[in-house]
Amino acid sequence: MQSDKVKAAEHSLGSPCERPQVSDESTTISRPKAHKDKKMELLSNAKERLELFRIEEGEKGKHVSSNKKSLRKVKRKLETLQGE
Fold first, then answer.
1. Which site among 8, 12, 38, 77 is 20 to 30 Å from 61 CA-CA?
2. Residue 10: Cβ within 10 Å count
3. What are phi and psi for residue 82, nearest 5 degrees?
């Protein structure tokens, strides 16, 4: 049995054809799309961070290589001076 309040609420909404229809289909479609969009955003951010890390590591590698060359030169100079 429906209470008088429920009946009154249904009556105020009108017939079922006049009532706005709420469909789970729209939320079913938008949830996976939103999830997919969020996933794509996270992947994009991760790729960007990885590329920045690679660039940074490459620059560090260049500095290490440059320092290594400088140390070799100093070592050769020391060996030359010790040989004199």
1. 77
2. 13
3. -70, -30
Quick one: which H or E segment has residue 23? Answer: none
- Separation between Cα atoms, residue 53 and residue 55, nearest integer Å: 5
59 assigned to some structural domain: yes
Q: What angle do CA 30, 31, 33 make, to 5 degrees?
A: 65
Q: Are 32 and 26 in contact (CB under 8 A)?
A: no
Q: What is the pLDDT of residues 17-76, one digit of tens each?
A: 555 555 555 555 567 888 889 999 999 999 999 999 999 999 988 888 889 999 999 999
Full domain range(s) for residue 71: 32-84
DSSP states of 45-63: HHHHHHHHHHHHHHHHHHH
The number of domains in the chain is 1
